[in-house]
Amino acid sequence: MSTTTRTLSVEQVQQAFDNSTFIAWLGMRVTSLDHDAQTIEVDIPFQNAFERGAGTRQWHGGPLAAVIDTVGDFAVGMLVGRGLPTVNFRVDYLRPAIDTDLRAIARVRRLGKSIGVADVDLVNAQGALVAIGRASYATLPPA
Q1: What Gene Ontology molecular function terms does this protein carry (predicted)?
Q2: Which residues of the chain have pLDDT under 50?
Q3: In a domain, 71, yes or no
């Protein structure tokens, strides 16, 4: 990592979450961040607004995807000092998330001059993998 790169702390990432109306609505809380390991962990509490169907307590795929994209973004972004535009994004849903809070664990796979790539595991309260995602983010300085 370049000495000129400004990294983000747990508090700064949380502040970025809280300063976005949409991300704040998701209720995400940064629980750990490791610049050397290039990982970040975020807890997401279940809300009835996330239900796939009323009364099911099953997470809809949309909020799951939003969480994965956001946490992947800040895994890379914490290393370059800002949130980043998403270039490409995919999610594989592995099992339903029902009546559970979630944890997102993101790991940077590549931090390049123009593109960064992160993988995100989304696990339920029992630690079972419910979804995985991979995204690429633009790391070029803002114009």
Answers
A1: fatty acyl-CoA hydrolase activity
A2: 1-4
A3: yes
